[in-house]
């Protein structure tokens, strides 16, 4: 690949980042990172029978203390609730409350239903290839620049 194509890719990434502005704004008491944690918790709860704070931290690639602070905020605002694990009292499971599920529905499910119609002009195979390629480029760059 020549350097001009690499530059065009980075330009496209800047443009792609601008698409984030079309995401719905979170409620005033939340920041986008809180909403992302709600999304992650929802997705993990579909895969796992019990979700722990450490599962969320691992899934989004941040430290446990960082997620713990945000989980506390979400709990204080009644978007999630913590429960002791029945098998191990040292472990705390978390789950979305009705308020958290409603937020997920509004911010993610409804948005993506509408957005899928906006993007319907792009063939599904092309979209899947684009997604796969972006992740592959990210992995290659991460290996080259962060793991040295």
Structure description:
The protein contains six helices and two strands, in the order H-H-H-H-E-E-H-H. The chain has 148 residues and is mainly alpha-helical.
Short description:
This protein is mostly helical. 65% of the residues lie in helices and 7% in strands. It is globular.
Provide the CATH top-level class. Mainly Alpha
Rg for CA atoms: 18 Å
Shape: globular
User: What amount of the residues lies in strands?
Assistant: 5-15%
Q: Can you name the CATH architecture?
A: Orthogonal Bundle
Distinctive features:
148 residues; mainly alpha; two-stranded antiparallel ribbon; 6 helices; 7% strand; globular
Chart the SSEs and their pairings.
Blueprint: H1 3-18, H2 32-47, H3 53-60, H4 64-76, E1 80-84, E2 92-96, H5 98-118, H6 124-145
Helix pairs in contact: 2-3, 2-5, 3-4
